[in-house]
């Protein structure tokens, strides 16, 4: 007597495609991230590879489009380039695609300054400055970007 639930590896190519399209209808995915997600649901690697390859050929899944959307969203939320690059790499996005989609340096200094400015009231003492610096580094800004952003704020000795 079957319970109606399929066991790992029992998914057909059509079922894997249906599942992939359902995921893609909710949000963009990178190719490797989609493969990983389908694998977690029990799709066999060879079927997943074939289905996702076909979806990529048909334009349903695109690392380029995913990266553009992801970078835009994270920049808007004032995250730095180091964090964004790390997150994209962990999702299987190639360095070349990441590089093509990263904004110019001024964008990062502006974002860091904007984020730091939201967290300050008036002039900063050394302790407050150090706290904001650490936060900027944790958000993925470089040492130079964090320092430039802090230099744009008032500082008291």
What would you note in describing this structure?
The chain is elongated and about 65 Å long. Among the domains are: 8-61, Winged helix-like DNA-binding domain superfamily/Winged helix DNA-binding domain (Arc Repressor Mutant, subunit A); 105-151. The N and C termini lie far apart (77 Å). The chain is built from 9 helices and no strands. With 157 residues, it is an all-alpha fold.
- How many strands appear in the DSSP assignment? 0
CATH architecture of the domain at 8-61: Orthogonal Bundle
Mean pLDDT: 90
Can you tell me the CATH superfamily of the domain at 8-61?
Winged helix-like DNA-binding domain superfamily/Winged helix DNA-binding domain
CATH structural class of the domain at 8-61: Mainly Alpha
CATH topology of the domain at 8-61: Arc Repressor Mutant, subunit A
**How much is the radius of gyration in Å?**
21 Å
Shape label? elongated
Let me know the largest β-sheet: none
Approximate helicity band: 55-70%
Please mark out the parts with pLDDT under 50 across 5 or more consecutive residues, or reply none: 1-7
What structural class do the secondary elements suggest?
mainly alpha
- Termini separation: 77 Å
Question: What brief labels describe this structure?
Answer:
single chain; 0% strand; 157 residues; Arc Repressor Mutant, subunit A; mainly alpha; elongated
């Amino acid at each position: 007597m079957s319970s109606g639930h399929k066991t790992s590896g029992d998914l057909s190519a059509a079922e894997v495609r249906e599942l992939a399209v359902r995921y893609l209808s909710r949000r963009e995915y990178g190719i490797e991230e989609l493969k990983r997600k389908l694998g977690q649901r029990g799709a066999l690697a060879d079927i997943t590879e074939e289905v996702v390859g076909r979806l990529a050929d048909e334009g349903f899944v695109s690392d380029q489009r995913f990266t553009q959307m992801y970078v835009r969203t994270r920049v808007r939320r004032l995250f730095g380039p180091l964090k964004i690059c790390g997150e994209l790499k962990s999702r299987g996005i190639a360095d070349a695609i990441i590089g093509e989609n990263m904004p110019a340096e001024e964008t990062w200094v502006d974002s860091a300054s904007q984020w730091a400015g939201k967290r300050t009231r008036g002039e900063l003492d050394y302790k407050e400055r150090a706290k904001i610096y650490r936060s900027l580094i944790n958000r993925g800004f470089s040492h130079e970007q964090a320092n430039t952003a802090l230099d744009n704020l008032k500082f008291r000795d």
